[in-house]
């Protein structure tokens, strides 16, 4: 069983040293987020993940889900874990107090969420989607709708689901055909949605579906989409659950991974719903939910990698095989340099990804609560720039790390009984849903860099460059890290200068280079946070801090990242500057 307490120390380090949690706690409404409270919340979450959620992970994978008479059934153990989750109040950690939540910063909620994801990715998707749906309703729903559903969704008594995709409308939402017709104070929604995660289940007695559909007079394309809250069962005037609402689970998909999570085909047949926001503004409402989800999915790349790492580390410390170069007797495999290389790759990437995700989340907290307009705008610009990077880079790296975790197990990793293969299977979805890596990369290059004319990018470059002075204070100790960061930063400047100079030369250039630029920026952002972490650790060591082993490991891990990971930034730059000609050169028949 993975050690859920192990990452808590690193989580707290990132929160306290890199996100500026003390400053966030000074923002309006976040005053209770003291270091002691945050530490207590994370310790309790780790215990809950270990004792309640973690044990159901393999059970859900083995038992899967099923549909009977339009109702989805999940593993009984999933239901028991969820009931305890609701009873202990975990659903509202970072939800607003006005909606019945605890009102802690989003960044603290993200750290807690990482534990749920690491314990059971399939199970964790249910509260993740509920949180996103609740935030969309809180931000865009009218007072009547908020009063009807919000408190029950925040508590977890009811869950939420996102209904966007249709058979002919995947990433192209303009092709959505579901229809909505006015009926008194509400609407009747008809259509079929596919790939709806936790679209139906038997853990709660109601599911609030957020559905994109078209009104009869809506303009074509995405500008004609409206969003509706459609409950699985109708809601009586007193807030109690009423009659079925013609919302049916047609089937569940049989998948590569996250088997305990029902991925549903949902049918709506004149189902009663409530308009969220203004007519034809569904895309705006949807992105409130989608952007929250994209940060959370990026975190899934961290969480599933952490779980794979913990298991691989435990195996490496126990498995006796072969002899080390300096010893005659058989040793555990953690003594072999190549196993050390794999473990260090996992450890360093995980710390880099976690730091990038949490620091981005901290910008989200600032964007929501800052009172200074300039600071608020700068924080939002940073969130907008970093969200596709956190989502795309972290999930792509997660594919590599879960595969390395399996490799450390050797042949035993390929056997399902060890559990290593499940992390590889479960994590594979993360690069696909909430927008594939290609979509994240296109968003980064098209909207967040070119359309923005590089303003947010230049602000990021300036912040990274400003770190150099802090690293210089520690001289030889951080010399390698400082040099690697400087080289990587110039690679970013060179690559983006090339992009601005060449993107209009061919319509294919932005799309051809976008993936490599996303991966370049993710690797660099991770290296930047690792450098900051090393500087913070060095400061603690110079102060004679008692936790010497932890801080020394921080610096060593950051140096490994600088030496073994940061050089790929230069390779991404060279690929970007190769342009689109070769990528687009073959005719269709030549493939």
Structure commentary:
By secondary structure, the chain is of the alpha+beta class. Among the domains are: 6-64 and 74-154, Butyryl-Coa Dehydrogenase, subunit A, domain 1 (Orthogonal Bundle), CATH 1.10.540.10; 158-280, Butyryl-CoA Dehydrogenase, subunit A, domain 2, CATH 2.40.110; 436-583. It is 57% helix and 13% strand. The protein contains 18 helices and 13 strands. The protein has helices spanning 6-18, 21-24, 35-53, 57-63, 76-87, 106-119, 121-140, 143-155, 282-318, 337-369, 373-408, 420-427, 437-450, 455-472, 479-502, 509-542, 548-565, 568-577; strands spanning 66-68, 71-73, 159-163, 179-183, 186-197, 207-214, 225-231, 233-235, 241-244, 247-252, 263-276, 320-323, 330-332. Strands 3, 4, 5, 6, 7, 10 and 11 form a seven-stranded mixed beta sheet that branches. It has a two-stranded antiparallel sheet with strand order 1-2. It has a two-stranded antiparallel sheet with strand order 8-9. Helix 13 crosses helix 16. The radius of gyration is 24 Å and the shape is globular. It starts with 5 loop residues before the first helix and ends in a 14-residue tail after the last helix.
